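Researcher: Next sequence.
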Amino acid sequence: MDFNGSDTLPGPRTEDHLPQTAQTAVKLVIVGGFGVGKTTMVGSVSEIRPLTTEETMTQAGIGIDDNYGSDTKTATTVAMDFGRISITEKLVLYLFGTPGQERFWFLWNGLFEGALGAVVLVDTRRLEVSFDVMGRLEERGVPFVVAVNSFPDAPRYPLDELRTALDLAADIPIVECDVRRRASSKDVLMTLMRFLHSLAMSGTLT
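Model: Next structure:
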């Protein structure tokens, strides 16, 4: 019962309704280490009010969670972020952001189910955390692209050097982005969709 005494719960906002023209829905996951910008990316690009499961960081995480480069971060995703973006009138993408802290990685298995592809967000100050992330995607056979989030104080490297440092195959796209900007985040998603389309056309996407 709400505060007005009604027995009905409020429904979704009008702007959150799925367009009637939508015919195809694709599930994508956004993964990466702690503090690389997954929640920010979902929030910047989602056409609906994003669902987040952020909790305030506490003293219990000291010595367990690596918050290098994120000393001012006060909250962390403990389950997932969720958003939606319509690419065309018929194609809708559902976005699931994964928890970045390793102690929550056990939740990734459920989030990967049914995912067609993934975006791996990378922070150049902590490239090493990306290897475990990409390894988990490769184990599950989830195609992915790499997006280098441009933090103001992070070192900049040519993409070819980053490809070598990350040991990326030549066919895996790697792009720079600023996840705070909707257009930049959308460009990353379009890069992933083009990559998935190329895999489908070549018969390598299962």
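Model: The helical segments are 38-45, 108-112, 129-140, 159-165, 182-202. Strands lie at 24-31, 54-56, 75-77, 81-86, 91-97, 117-122, 144-149, 174-177.
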